[in-house]
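Q: I have 152 residues here and want to know how they pack in 3D. Can you give me a structure?
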Amino acid sequence: MDPALFSNLPNSISQVRLEPYLAACSGDMNQALRLYTWNIEASASFWGEMHVLEISLRNSIHDEMTSKYGKADWWTDPHVKLTYAQQQMLKKGIAHHEPIFTRFLIGDHNLILRISRYIDVEISDYIKSHSRVVDCLRRRDRAVIEGFETSF
């Protein structure tokens, strides 16, 4: 359903959060709401890719560090010096709910595929064959200008 049809949506989202979308749509609230909704879909389409990449990367790092320090809990080794921020970065997920529509999203998609290929070619192929990113990017103009349906 066209997000522009939900009259309370701008208030629920907030003016501050809508500002980048309004700016990108020359102040057109209907298009801004559609872009906001498409941005959610675009963000969601990256989750699967990022999930597989993050797990593959973390496991590769873990395997290397386990091999180097000779123990599975390598982070407890006194020679491994991680700052608190680095430890948190290793533990955190990637949900910030920020606008991504201004990014070069196909470039982000290709970077994920390239990095995953360094880890394992089959993992990269798996990500590519299951990704929703390219289809989502193809629908942007119709979603924003025409109110074409989006999903998230």
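Q: Anything worth noting?
A: The CA atoms of residues 67 and 74 lie 9 Å apart. Residues 29-69 form the longest helix (41 residues).
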